Amino acid sequence: MSAISGPRKSSPGDARERTGPRADDPRVVRTRSAVVDAARALFLRDGYSRTTMDEIAALAGVTKRTLYNNYADKEALFREIVLDFIAFAEEFARGLQEELGGIANAKLRSTLEELGVRLALAITRRDVIALRRLLISEAREFPLLARKYFDRVPAQVLGALASAFERLDDAGRLRVPDARVAASQFAYLVVGEPLDRAMLVGTLPARKHVIACARTGVETFLARYGPAAP
């Protein structure tokens, strides 16, 4: 081709070569899913600082070049994994808000027991405990992520409980001077001891123990806030 013949016209194939596969390409989706699964497993097992991109690539079965084509660095991967988990957990918090909408007309003791058991079992799940421990260990390096988790999950759960207790107070079914305080106390009563043990010792409590603690916690809560409470 003559040097003065002008630039060659581009073709669709050239565009694909320049831009690479689209983000919704099934190959890209599979690769990113494998990488995220591998990174999540390693972060939760070994922590953020002790996990390397080499290990993530090896476990995902991809080359380092492929890994870096999808994620700029380890921090980007970590943030995506935590934010994905927050979004998933946030669905639980939103579902709880909807579920508690009609609590004023429900059978009080049985409804609170079911709520306490469900909440305790959700909080003491293996993946939830692992993520909480990971966020605490990395809170100095990622303080905004830890804050985002608290604001979008535990804080929303407490807000949903507080709103429900306010409605029960209005209906005369509970005596709740401060709904926020009551919500915090309810949450700790139903799951505090098993959660503390799991967080500090790393051992998941037996399901039977979690359920028993939740039911006892509800009994204590009603002794303080029930309609016959002083």
Sum this structure up briefly.
This protein has helices at residues 12-19, 26-46, 53-60, 64-70, 74-99, 108-123, 126-137, 143-152, 154-170, 179-201, 207-225.
Can you offer a commentary on this structure?
The protein has helices at residues 12-19, 26-46, 53-60, 64-70, 74-99, 108-123, 126-137, 143-152, 154-170, 179-201, 207-225. It is mainly alpha-helical and 230 residues long. It has 2 domains: 21-71, Homeodomain-like (Arc Repressor Mutant, subunit A, Orthogonal Bundle), CATH 1.10.10; 77-225, Tetracycline Repressor, domain 2, CATH 1.10.357. It is elongated, with a radius of gyration of 25 Å. The protein starts with 11 loop residues before the first helix and ends in a 5-residue tail after the last helix. The model is unreliable at 1-20 (pLDDT under 50).
Characteristics:
single chain; 230 residues; mainly alpha; Arc Repressor Mutant, subunit A; Tetracycline Repressor, domain 2; disordered N terminus
CATH class of the largest domain: Mainly Alpha
Q: What CATH architecture label of the largest domain applies?
A: Orthogonal Bundle
CATH superfamily of the largest domain: Tetracycline Repressor, domain 2
What order do the helices and strands follow? HHHHHHHHHHH
The CATH topology annotation of the largest domain reads as Tetracycline Repressor, domain 2
Please estimate the helix content.
over 70%
- Overall pLDDT, averaged? 85
Number of domains: 2
Termini separation comes to 96 Å
Number of alpha- plus pi-helical segments: 11
Main sheet?
A: none
Number of strands: 0
As residue ranges, the low-confidence spans are 1-20
Our estimate of the beta-strand percent is under 5%
Overall spatial form: elongated
Structural class: mainly alpha
* Rg of Cα set: 25 Å
